[in-house]
Structure formats: C-alpha cells, structure tokens
C-alpha cells in the first residue's frame, strides 16, 4: 500500500510552475498526465496542479501549514544531476554551501525552492556516509 494517495498543488503562475514541477517530477521518474498538470509516481501516488479562483495570498512555507515535501532518489548520481540542472529549470538551491549534508552528516539530500517559494527535499533513499 502506498503512503499517500494524492495531493493537490495550488500555484499562482500555472505556466511557470508547470515547467518547474514537470522537470522535477520527470527527474523523479513520475509520468506526466493530462495537459501538464498531473503527474503520477510509479507507486500510483499522484499530484494534481491547478490555479484556482478560490486562492488568496501567496505561498509562505514559514507560516502554519505544510513547510515542504521530501522525495527519494536511489542514487547519488541522480541527486548530483538534479542539483546541476535545477537552476536552469527554475529551482533555487537552498543550503548550497552544505550540500549534500545540510540536514546533518548522516543525511544526504538536496534542498530546492521553486519560484513561488515551495520547498522540496530530495533525499538519497539509502543514506550512506560516503555518499
């Protein structure tokens, strides 16, 4: 059984967000669905992105709510490749001076922030102190 069924991602700039998130999900092995606003993981978990007239205000991960979401990758090579390409796809690397151990010496991860302020953490699935 998968841990998460799906989640909805509300964005302000649909076109920009589609490019940023589309690249990220593609790197993670998720398949794109209808019209660039739906992606599905190999386990069936999916995300649906939309812009809604019900929205008000902007994303602020430092306010009450969800701070970030963490995804896993299976190799350090994927993590390094994502780091190298993230900027050209609209993502800003957080804690670059402490990569890949910004979360601690026993935690190998890449921290990214989208143009709208969404934070994602890409975690090496099997932490390896030599990674």
TrEMBL record:
Gene3D superfamilies: 2,3-Dihydroxybiphenyl 1,2-Dioxygenase, domain 1. PROSITE patterns: VOC. It holds the Pfam family Glyoxalase_4. It comes from the Bacteria. InterPro entries: Glyas_Bleomycin-R_OHBP_Dase (IPR029068), VOC_core (IPR037523). Residues 3-125 form the VOC domain. This is Glyoxalase. The lineage of its organism: Bacteria, Bacillati, Actinomycetota, Actinomycetes, Propionibacteriales.
